[in-house]
Design a protein that fits this description.
Helix content is 48%, strand content 10%. It has a domain of 74 residues. With 187 residues, it is mainly alpha-helical. A 3-stranded antiparallel beta sheet has the order 1-3-2.
Length: 187
């Protein structure tokens, strides 16, 4: 296969696969009223629960050290299920902007925070794609130089072959031989 064609196929494949990478857009379609500095000993259940109490949902989702606060939100997927706010038993955790023991002060992500995270993730993917593209460009440059050097060597070998043939074959007049051009009677 032609090396340039092969390299072109690789570059096209890399670009198309880069376009097909999941750019996370629209993943932040919620507004949960997230806040910074809220107590880190309060969390919402990750799953939606129905037909069980809030306390049971907290214990099932977060563990036996958690109790329900009495707050609930409808499940984002709809239906009669809900997510419940839970509070860690004992202690106040981190509050007032401190990092606290139980985790960071960010209790949930707002739409703006989610979009900022998405932008960061996408920028990292673009950097990775640019790095790969630069690697492919470097490979292309090296391949092109090698092909050019091979063509030069092929021409030199063909010239040498014809010179050697003219030395061996008496019927050949050595048309490309420099000595024959200067002194045709010698050939």
């Amino acid at each position: 296969m032609n090396t340039k064609l092969f390299l072109g196929i690789i570059i096209i494949f890399a670009l198309i696969s880069g376009l097909l990478l999941p750019i996370i857009e629209g993943a932040c379609n919620y507004n949960d009223g997230g806040s910074i500095g809220a107590p880190s000993n309060e969390k919402w259940t990750e799953k939606c629960y129905g037909f069980i109490g809030a306390a049971a949902a907290c214990k099932k989702d977060l563990g036996k050290d958690w109790d329900a606060t009495g707050k609930e939100k409808p499940c984002p997927t709809g239906g009669f299920d809900a997510i419940y706010q839970c509070k860690k038993k004992g202690g106040s955790g981190g509050s007032g902007g401190s990092l606290g023991v139980a985790g960071s002060p960010v209790t949930s992500r707002t739409t703006a925070a989610c979009e900022k995270g998405t932008i960061y993730d996408n920028e990292e993917r673009v950097k990775l794609a640019e790095t790969k593209l630069n690697e492919l460009k470097l490979i292309h440059k090296r391949t092109e130089e090698k092909v050019y050097n091979n063509l030069k060597q092929i021409k030199q070998n063909l010239n040498n072959r014809s010179k050697m043939n003219s030395l061996v074959d008496d019927s050949d007049d050595g048309g490309t031989n420099d000595a024959c051009k200067k002194y045709p009677e010698a050939c």
